[in-house]
Amino acid sequence: MIRPFAERETAWQQAWDDARVFAVSDDATGQATYVLEMFPYPSGRIHMGHVRNYSIGDALGRYLKMQGRDVLHPIGWDAFGMPAENAAIANDRHPAEWTYENIRTMRGQLKKLGFSYDWDREIATCRPEYYRFEQQVFLEMLERGIAYRRKTRVNWCPTCMTVLANEQVIDDRCWRSDTVVEQKEMDGWFLKITDYAQELLDDLDKLDEWPDKVRTMQRNWIGRSDGATVHFRLLDADRTLTVFTTRPDTLFGVTYMAISPEREDLYDLMDEQARAAVIALRDKVRADGFAENEKAGVPTGLSVIHPLTRQDIPVYAANFVLADYGTGAIMAVPAHDQRDYEFARQLGIPVQVVIVPPDGSIDDVSQLGQAYSDPGTMVNSGDYDGLANVEAGKRIVAALVDRGAGSAEVQWRLRDWGVSRQRYWGAPIPVIYCDDCGTVPVPVTDLPVRLPEDVRITGEGSALVGHDAFVNVDCPSCGKPARRETDTFDTFMESSWYFVRYLDPRNEQRLADPGLAERWMPVDHYIGGVEHAVLHLLYARFFTKVLRDLGYVSCDEPFRHLLTQGMVIKDGAKMSKSKGNVVDPDEMVARYGADTTRLFMLFAAPPEKDLDWQEQGVEGMARFTGRLERTFQATLEIAATDLPQGDSGAVFADLDRAVHQTIAKMTEDIGQRLQLNTAIAALMELLNNWSHAINETGAASSGDQQVLRDLLPIVPRLLAPFAPHLAEELWQALGNESFVARADWPVADPDKLTADVVEIAVQVNGKLRGRIHMAPDADKQAMLDTARADDNVARYLADSQVVKEIVVPGKLVNFVVRPGGGG
Description:
Elements: H1 5-19, E1 32-37, H2 48-66, E2 70-72, E3 76-77, H3 82-91, H4 95-112, E4 123-124, H5 128-144, E5 147-157, E6 162-164, E7 169-170, E8 173-174, E9 182-191, H6 197-202, H7 212-222, E10 224-234, E11 240-245, E12 256-259, H8 272-286, E13 297-305, E14 312-318, E15 329-332, H9 338-347, E16 355-356, E17 377-378, H10 389-402, E18 406-412, E19 417-418, E20 420-421, E21 431-434, E22 438-441, H11 468-471, E23 472-474, E24 481-484, E25 488-489, H12 498-501, H13 514-520, E26 523-529, H14 535-549, E27 559-565, E28 568-570, E29 573-574, H15 585-592, H16 594-603, E30 611-612, H17 615-639, H18 650-671, H19 676-697, H20 702-711, H21 714-719, H22 724-733, E31 758-764, E32 767-774, H23 780-789, H24 791-797, E33 800-808, E34 812-819
Parallel strand pairs: 1-2, 1-26, 3-4, 12-14, 26-27, 28-30, 31-34
Antiparallel strand pairs: 5-6, 5-9, 7-8, 9-19, 10-11, 10-13, 10-18, 12-15, 13-14, 16-17, 20-25, 21-22, 21-24, 23-24, 28-29, 31-32, 33-34
Helix pairs in contact: 1-22, 3-4, 15-16, 16-17, 17-19, 17-20, 18-19, 18-20
């Protein structure tokens, strides 16, 4: 007897836990396959986006386990971060209390959905036994010069009261609070991700199982620029203004220089009036006082000498030149750069054309009304006139090198990763400051530096600053009074290496055993949202390369195959509390069951596409599972019935073939294409054929009965990745004492994938009047003759004139007739 979904789902979840069905042994010797979904932040409750993400990973993990793989499928919690601290401020609760309570809630929700996690490996990044190894890796980075501290202008979020990395600033706003970001100067800790820029760029070519759009986003963010450094000597001063340009071919078109108004090192060269104007511009830039794309600038009164023409070039301060990007100065070529062109027109600066189209159709940019940036032929460029601009650029760089006025150079858009955060709820940075010894690393033997929990969160800066017991320590080097670092790590630090800790989460001596790292890494299938394409995925790639260089792992990349699943949409918008369109997963599970909810999430759209939430779709899926239960039960009864000897009829032969075609299709859809929606569609089509066979025809012989007996143990195994509780229930109904989750995936019989005989529909004037069975390659005349011989078809052709015969080989015969004249 098949139990109701609520009863069976609870029972099977407990049975899996008791038998540790999904716990993978470190001593296992099968093919290691690592399936991982991006771990959740414990915000309070899971949402349907979580359900979709984890259902995809669970279906894949279960399928691979049934293929005989040793599947590692862990779960944990990205538990540090500003939301916990902000919630603590709002509710007067400690972030730890809030976080652990949310973990308990969300763990219970995930278990109700029956995901196949190895719960023995569960981690929470806020636990000292986790971040202790993060601190150790940081100290090793510090020793190698990968980690360093410096004073810099930083992105400051006044709402979160913390520094943000460049990647966390989106359209000048905080990625989390949407607050306009301010610029501040302060000390902070950085990781030299730029040391790995070229490798991060080159290795994207190895990631051929990543979506192209993600690789493109990372290429653009890393941003390699090949060009030249050019030195312009300041007129009447023994100083040089150095710029980087990707267009050395336009050097003869420079009509002005532009500097950041924050180039305070040049203030002493300006007269009082110019300096005051530049400072006013600087202050307005810092206050974000300009509209988007607005160009503004002032003359500095300074000039430089062109390194090749020796002409004087005026210098302007411009709001679009950034102090911390490149050298804080640019050479402006208004004829061939649109931004430079708009600024020049606004301030009345000359425009000098040096590149024209190959056909010479334009010799003055004013004819276009905009900058010309396409390839072309050099003009107004001295010895380089008439050359193609690319070749001219190479020769101009050579000339600069000969004169000591420049060099070929590569620059990167990527900046070093600022990891200091001025908030409490994060992993402490293991550094001590001593007046005598300077910056002193905490000895590894003193790790972890524990985050104290006896604090009160007020929101006015970090609670660590005023925690005397935490801050005031003795210097590890000289023993004198010293101060502990009160900044904590950016929460992206924890998510940049957690996939390695899953390999050996209870190891108190090492981050992970090298043998386990060799066996499991890289992750074979990584599943998560495309919104993490730059932030998380780039940092994880960088961290993996550092861990490789430190001897923790041997792989170059963390994730072999990446699936970026689409969003869950309701009422035309992404589900979110702010839009009021959230669907509670617990409510869906209570009403329809976990299996039905998961089936809908997997069937409604391909994994990489957005899913439009429709509750009637869930109801439709509930009808499917109910029909499957009833058909299975009816088939069990037929299989136990005494039937006369005989071969299987045509309908059951078709069903037998359909079973193996379904196995083949689902195997390809899941294992090769990861198109879970079409795999489920194939299962639905099989149910249609199956229902037709037993409802319309009935099992009339032992041959028919044997087809059904062969089908019964196949169905639960095909169902298991998608609706695991129902699959276990059906498997048990067959008398199996083991779990279907441990069963083998069925294998299609190649001899049954093509038919010896196919069913061909016969129509008269488009209406079905009979069915015939023939070889799939039967010729047209044989199909027509056999169709005419069918008694029912012959009755409809009698006393009629056939005016047209339509034949679709192997599928259809249609007689178009009109009254009179005979057949």
